[in-house]
Amino acid sequence: MAAAGFLPDVRDLLSMFVDGLPTNSFSFVSLYDHILTSLNEPDDALLPNIQEFFDHVIRLDNNVQ
After folding, report:
1. Which residues contact residue 47 at a Cβ distance below 8 angstroms, ignoring those fewer than 6 apart?
2. pLDDT one-digit tens code per residue, 2-13
3. Is 3 within a domain?
4. At what angle do helices 10-19 and 50-64 cross, to 10 degrees?
5. Helix, coil or strand: residue 18
6. Does residue 4 form part of some domain?
7. Contact 50, 17 (CB under 8 A)
8. Within 13 Å and on the Cβ side, how many CA atoms surround 30?
9. What is the pLDDT of residue 2?
């Protein structure tokens, strides 16, 4: 995306991230809802850290397996 000149902002990244989450576990669905709810924040500074969500998903995935 960066090579094409499209640099996504934090909201775009979070949105793309949740679109790729699995839907086979309540934990992932709960995380999906949490992230989508956070996108309603008016200020980008109030958005969650995407790296923390990456780490959280890895831990959830390890627990599911």
Report:
1. 10, 11, 14, 38, 39, 41
2. 677 777 888 888
3. no
4. 10
5. helix
6. no
7. yes
8. 6
9. 63
Place of tokens 């790296």: 51
Report d(CA 22, CA 54) in Å as an integer.
13
First to last CA, the chain: 31
pTM given for the model? 0.71
Decide if 5 is inside a domain: no
Task: Categorize the per-residue pLDDT at 1 as very low, low, confident or very high, splitting at 50, 70 and 90.
Answer: low
Whether the predicted pLDDT of 21 surpasses 70? yes
User: Domain range holding 56?
Assistant: 10-64
As a whole number of angstroms, the distance between CA 38 and CA 62 comes to: 24
Per the structure, the count of domains in the chain is 1
**For 10-20, what is the mean pLDDT?**
88
